[in-house]
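Deliverable D2.4 — example input (structure tokens):
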């Protein structure tokens, strides 16, 4: 069967809050009828095994489907509330009767429409009139043309999405131009001023993170560290006593939490809580870091590196530390008692764990070029499947 896989990218609003995820169904290097059938099967399989709603975490799902799959699809079963579904269409279907008929049917059910690659030509203008969202290629248009297009679309009541936003600097520039939404992993690449020292609170937080993740830290030391932070202890005990934690008794002390949860599980919770306490970063950064951690761990297991899975998890979790602390990752890693292998992976993307991060970066870019992506003996279908499963897990973990 032809290779088909799903890519996923976040779309954030002007306040850096998550608005939607775009799910892109890629059809390999040579799309054909077989790959169309494979796309339809993958859509059904993803829903039955993971659930599209789990992948987007209850947010809006913007779906980019092959034309024939969209026309032939009878229903988007996972979306009981069709108002949380946006169907993306290309700018050349203005005379495609079957597509237009399908769009009319879906709009009557509450599905919104997003027009991709808008240009100021008759075909795009007609399709924009029936669309709720419009995407502009900010790499292909001049600043003057972008401003003009945004103003015209806003006058029609359309929301405008910027694509290929890879850095915070680009986000800030496009925000000033008037875009409503921004697609990409720009929030993982903040503007960093070299030489700027960490503030006292962030330095203290980093030192605690370092101690917690030091393999030499004992149960007793960890319990003592956590007990000194009243706010963190309270949040931890609330999380531990959540029914989802499935602990049979009410836990009242950090020491008890250690005994019932185990060191590894407790470290995970503490890492997550401490990173979530940073106020000047978007919440999606934490979800993305959790997704990266789970993906790297799953990749290690699938590729036969079972014994190193915890290190892979840590590399994925810490791969965004530069964005959390808005400092060069090399400076942050220097403050932490990590192995040389982990440091090389985080700073230089070297070694097998560094290759895992490179693989992850390719997936996050949703480039058509990653059809040949491999890791050890795994191909794109294996890798993309793990990515989707990790995405669903991260949303559930961040909610808990």
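Example output (designed residues):
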């Amino acid at each position: 069967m032809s290779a088909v896989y799903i890519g996923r990218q976040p779309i954030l609003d002007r306040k850096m809050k998550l608005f939607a995820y775009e799910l892109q169904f890629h059809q390999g290097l040579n799309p054909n009828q077989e790959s169309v059938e494979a796309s339809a099967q993958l859509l059904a399989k993803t829903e039955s095994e993971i659930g599209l709603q789990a992948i987007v975490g209850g947010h809006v799902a913007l779906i980019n489907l092959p034309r024939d799959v969209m026309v032939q699809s009878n229903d988007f079963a996972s979306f009981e509330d069709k108002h949380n579904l946006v169907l993306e269409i290309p700018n050349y279907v203005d005379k495609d009767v079957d597509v237009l008929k399908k769009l009319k049917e879906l709009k009557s059910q509450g599905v919104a429409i997003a027009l991709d690659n808008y240009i100021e030509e008759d075909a795009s203008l007609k399709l924009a009139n029936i669309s709720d969202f419009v995407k502009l290629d900010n790499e292909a248009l001049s600043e003057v043309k972008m401003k003009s297009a945004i103003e015209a679309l806003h006058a029609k009541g359309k929301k405008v999405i910027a694509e290929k936003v890879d850095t915070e600097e680009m986000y800030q520039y496009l925000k000033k131009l008037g875009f409503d939404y921004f697609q990409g992993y720009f929030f993982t690449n903040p503007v960093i001023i070299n030489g700027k020292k960490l503030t006292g609170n962030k330095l203290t937080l980093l030192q605690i993170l370092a101690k917690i993740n030091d393999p030499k830290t004992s149960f007793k030391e960890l319990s003592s560290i956590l007990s000194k932070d009243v706010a963190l202890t309270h949040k931890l005990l609330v999380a531990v006593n959540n029914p989802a934690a499935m602990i049979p008794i009410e836990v009242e002390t950090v020491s008890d939490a250690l005994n019932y949860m185990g060191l590894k599980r407790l470290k995970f919770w503490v890492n997550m809580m401490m990173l979530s306490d940073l106020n000047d970063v978007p919440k999606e950064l934490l979800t993305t870091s959790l997704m990266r951690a789970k993906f790297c761990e799953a990749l290690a297991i699938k590729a036969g590196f079972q014994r190193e899975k915890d290190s892979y998890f840590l590399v994925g979790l810490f791969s965004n530390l530069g964005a959390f602390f808005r400092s060069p990752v090399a400076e942050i890693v220097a403050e932490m008692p990590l192995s040389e292998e982990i440091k090389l992976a985080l700073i230089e993307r070297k070694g097998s764990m560094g290759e895992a991060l490179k693989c992850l970066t390719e997936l996050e870019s949703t480039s058509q070029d990653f059809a040949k992506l491999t890791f050890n003996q795994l191909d794109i279908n294996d890798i993309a499947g793990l990515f989707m499963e990790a995405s669903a897990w991260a949303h559930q973990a961040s909610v808990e």
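The mean pLDDT is 84.
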